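Residues and backbone
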Amino acid sequence: MPQAQGVNPLINLFPFILMFVIFYFLLIRPQNKKEKERQKMINSLNKNDEVVTSGGIHGTVVNVKEKSVVLRVDENARIEVEKSAIAYLKNKPDSGQKA
């Protein structure tokens, strides 16, 4: 009776390695890239930038502090929020350029 040859253990691990590579390129890498872009946006906040917070508050940056920003949400209403609460910039103010 002939003996069965053993299967290379690398072949058994190949599907798991392939799944990890697929997850990395479809999920992990894009998420890391998006987070780096968001961190860059937060670090480049300046006075008069129009922003939206993660809570949905629209405002204009009045003052940038180390860990927070002061937003003007109405003529006489200002609030201070953490920088991490800024979801995105609505638009960068024009620097004197006309179309």
Residues 55 and 85 are 8 Å apart (CA to CA). The chain has a mean pLDDT of 88.
